[in-house]
Amino acid sequence: MATSASTTSNLSEEELMLIVKWSGKEYTVRVCGDDSVGELKRQICEVTAVLPKR
């Protein structure tokens, strides 16, 4: 699973937009700077349906 961060003008300074690539598809996940890794994993699971333990 590869991720990359990008910034755009409509995101706040504390918010990151990550592009997650899984099985040839790209998913966008937005997280705040103070979110935990567990929260990031939960959000990735919501959009990809891939369990965090995988």
UniProtKB/TrEMBL annotation:
InterPro entries the record matches: Ubiquitin-like_domsf, UBLCP1
Coiled coil regions, renumbered to chain: none
Domain of life: Eukaryota
Single biological process term from Gene Ontology: regulation of proteasome assembly
Protein name: Ubiquitin-like domain-containing protein
Species of provenance: Carpinus fangiana
